[in-house]
Fold each of these.
Amino acid sequence: MLDGCTPWPEEFVDRYWAAGHWRGYTLDNLLRGWALEYGPRTALVHGDTRLTYANLNRRVDRLSAGIRLRGIRPGMRVVVQLPNVPEFVVTVFALMRAGAVPVLCPLSHPAAELPELVRVTQAVGYVAPATHQGVDHMAVAADIAARWPFLRRVFTLEEPGSASPYGGLTTDPAGCQYAPLGSVDAPPEPALIQRADRPAFLLLADGGGTAGTGLVPRTHDDYAYQARAAAERVSLGGDDVYLAALPAGSGLALGCPGIIGTLSVGGTVVLADPADPGACLRALRRERVTLTSVGPATAERWLEALPAAGAGPGGLRLVQIGSEASVPPVPRTTADRLGAALGCDVQQAFWMAEGPLLLTRAAAPGCGDTVPAEPGHHPLSPDDEIRLVGADGRDVPEGEAGELLARGPYTARGYYRSSGHDARSFTADGYFRTGRLARRAPDGGLVVTGRCGELPTG
């Protein structure tokens, strides 16, 4: 175990380096390079707020230094539970630059499960709005701090123009310190020397998972490769504008290619908050968005809202539809209707926090019989290794459905500090048991058909 992360065997490390998949750069160091290359370009948009690459990197530098001054040390975990605002991107990169490990937790995650998430990760910090949609996150944090003595730093995201309920740094009876995120600021410090094979952040598995058994460590090397390869797959370039309509910390919005993939090519990321259909459709038009990704339910809501929103935006060229909980895949009729309504190509995606990313070939509206009735999902990497196995663990005959197993340069080799769960979810030779049934499609890809009743034990 390396910082709670099961490493790839040396033969695979050598293979992925030789292929150029892994390059040894941490994500926060990549941001430095992007800032140098794309400095004056717009990196982030949220409402009237616009941050250039240079400004984004400066904010990350100063927040990272402020975090370190408050005792956050390399390897420490910090739970990040923020909406789609620039502070999410700044905070995640700042924590990585400080050597800490962000634990990305969606705001939709049940508040009752946060204490267990903090306990399992032994998180020393928590970043969240003071309140959000009726949830008092500071009260939740105070309760957790009273239970677990390692949580001692809480940083609150305040609404613009509002007065902080703390008025600066305060300490509660449990010894936990609270501070507005905007006050965590210090002159930049010399860069830390960090390893790219260490965890960059932790993701919750299966769209939320169980904190004790479903935390996925993603390394800098593997996630940088995933975002870069996904950007190449959809021909993402510096003139593209990506709308983050899903939660920024979700896999599809973060790196499929999402936020990180867009930043890697000098494009612009528009953060949707609020993310209701009307606001998103207006943002598509206003910001001349060229690429976005939605879940199945969001696609349906957009279709319902489109008549009231008027004509579809002309700049949009691709919508990804997918979710790791989307089993079976999004109905072809939904994909066709959304593509036709928005006048763009549609790509279905199957992804999991553990790493497998399968994408259909983008289908333009109105192309009729040239698109298979049942398009297959194709692995992202040429070094993705895919197996379909039966309950006995053996490969199924061609044409039959079996459990989808995967290993590759961006698929994790284990969960965070959960050897028991690893034994159930990974084969002895390192394949991840996805728990999904799939079969081969006529175009050579994969059709995911459902969930397995039980994971094989062989």
Amino acid sequence: MSARTLPFTCRIVDRLLRRTRMMAHMREARRVLAMPPIVPPDDGVVILSMIGTRTVLPYLVAVKSFHHRLRMGRIVLIDDGSLTEADRRTLARHCGQPRIIPISTVDTGECPRGGTWERLLTLLDLRRDAYVIQLDSDTLTLAEMPEVRAAIADNRNFILLGAPDSEVMGIQRLPDFVRWKYPDGPIDPPAHMQAVIESRFGGYPEADRHSYVRASSGFAGFARGGPSGRAEAATFSRHVQALVGAEIWTRWGSEQITSNFLLSNEPESRLLPYALYSNYWRLPVTGDERLVHFVGTHRYSDSVYRGMTRRAIDMLMQADAK
């Protein structure tokens, strides 16, 4: 049962519990400020994130735990408009004087504004000259990542799948994806916008020549000099908006669908094994995870995010003590 379907009193209690867990998590995350700063190499890899003042501490845990394992990449940030001067000083001190791009300066052209489109379009600009990794502030890296390092070394994209069933099916042609995921035909509002959009992919121009996989844009690798850029994103945006209408297409989530589409249609994109690179859907964790993305739905449904944050910082402390 989701929080939205709970009785009113239960929703109030659930909201209070989530807030309590969030505050406890932030207290845990604050420990990252005692860890040494990142020293980013100029090695042709960019780690891109969009953050705001409320996510500075979780982001520092995300990027420090990731950089500690990858040992590659300089940092570029998109300011969602809420970063303070104190935030900027903190980020400069801990992230090696990162480039910070104000979101208001990103031209989205024909594509929607908001919903992290500014992040995707900036990424597509940067990939002309660098291998770009999109890293959300609600990710945690807990072990070495040979699959990611191999993708970078081979200059191939990598994709974080949305759920285990996507790993079973893999990247599919659009008509095959629709038949598998939506065998009963198009889904109508008020269903989630992702289902509404994906269920209509059979009507995409020359659908049998295009591919898709349901994945997460919270962690993705875009190969340097890849074929997809702003023009390809704009073309996809235009065609899908014609299928579902502007009201649906401009909702939060259209950027992720676009990211999935672009990566799926580039040669030799690699799917990360879901048992090792996953999204947290409130299922039991194994302890073998290399990277976990704590999606908003269940980020504070329990104490797992806080526990894994503690584990990630403890690992950083142990490494620093050596």
Amino acid sequence: MGVLIALGLAFVLADWQLFQLTMVVSYAIALLGLNMLTGYSGQISLGHGAFYAVGAYTAGVLMTIAPIPYWATIPAAALVAFVVGYLFGRPALKLEGLYLALATFALGVALPQLLKYKLLEPWTGGVQGLILMKPDAPFGLPLNPDQWLYLFSLAVGLLLFGLAANLLNSGSGRALRALRDHPMAAESMGIDLSHYKSLIFGVSAAYTGVGGALSAIAVQFVSPDSFTLFLSISLLVGIVVGGVGTFWGALVGALFIMFVPSFAEQISKSAPWAIYGCILIAVVFLMPKGVAGTRFPRPSRNAR
């Protein structure tokens, strides 16, 4: 039923509202990736905005320089982000807790500066960034670009959410939860901690990269200043508000990221971030497990 409603919105909402929903989908995919890493495997990341940037720039470079069709940049962004995430996660295996968070924080800080590096300007556009073209609907479908991109993003989102559900409900998903709840017990039962930690870091980065690619196509522009550390913090806020370790918390968190800052600005144009902070504090105090965590609480470890 929810899918049918989401599809119907493409034909009743204005173009700017469809753009907002497309961004919600892109954020939801990125938050699902971060939640798989933090909520399901217990690894903290403060730099997932870097993987969002990797996906966005992969789509931007391929669309402007190659050029490659927009739809082909989505799997390419997933692949590139997976490789970057896996290569970063492999040496980071020796780090845990706050030390891992600090390492990912450093990644989030460093990447925007690297994108401005002169030797990379022919591909990244340097501080000027890259301008993209919003795709038209294929096969002569009677849809404008905003309608088509929303439906395309929705299809990608449904596919990735389905794949994530299968992963988290499989033996690998149970291994990840064991890794989160009791690493020593998991290792004693034969779970390869190095393999699963690296793999989930790569998968998480791939999801976030796809979200970044969809956002780049929707916004039609990418630049290093679009992927500041605030983006990484916003993604972390999204999974906390939505519910750490909850599947549908990603969607709730995406709605929060997209609409609450605008709502706060409508309340007070002089101090919008103060209003945003008050709303965030209220949500954390009233629903400490997140919106989805309060509505659909995670089963107790002692439950049989």
Amino acid sequence: MQLSKRLGAIASLVPEGAKLVDVGTDHGYIPIYLTKNHKASYCIASDINKGPLESAKRNRDKYQLSGIELRQGSGLQTIKLEDRMDTVVIAGMGGYLVHDILELDLVLVKTMRTLILQPQNNIPEIRRYVHSIGFKIAREVFLEEEGKYYTIIVAVPGVESYVKPCHYEYGQYLLEEGSDLYKRWLQHKQKGYADIITKLQTLEGNQTAERMSELQQANELIEEALKCMH
């Protein structure tokens, strides 16, 4: 079974022998891949919708896999403490939804050894939230697939907080790793802001001035982030 680049990256971050909950499992690709390759010891594939679970069941049965349980429900509501799961994957959802899923079942979340989160947006807020609930960021992965960019956050229990605002905005791990892809992405973002500022300079009005100030602050944050990469 061949996973997409994004799903493959998520699967590669799951600890060996994990008891995994895949929230919003869709077709069940991650649990199936991990079980088939003997990386996860047990998986619960969870989804709020019946359709994706039926698809996941067909895929599971196709490979004749045991050790994958399918449960329908919202977020982590399908999981009990007695299940003794130790790893959670929440991928492909908006940042605020990821936050709400974790917050709603915080007692359960705090029993986990690993959180693997791939929010589609509001990534800085997820970094802050992870720190606020007693987890530290052990690793981040930044990748590009079919013209889209994704950030995957791996969090483990621990106390951590970032001093620099750019570390929350752009990820201390990613900045210290300093990949060429991430640097190019930041520079592209910076140029986009600069181009908008140049256009706004020809306009007048309070709203224009406020927007320019916001963009200049955003650009300064990127500048700080790029300095952290050197």
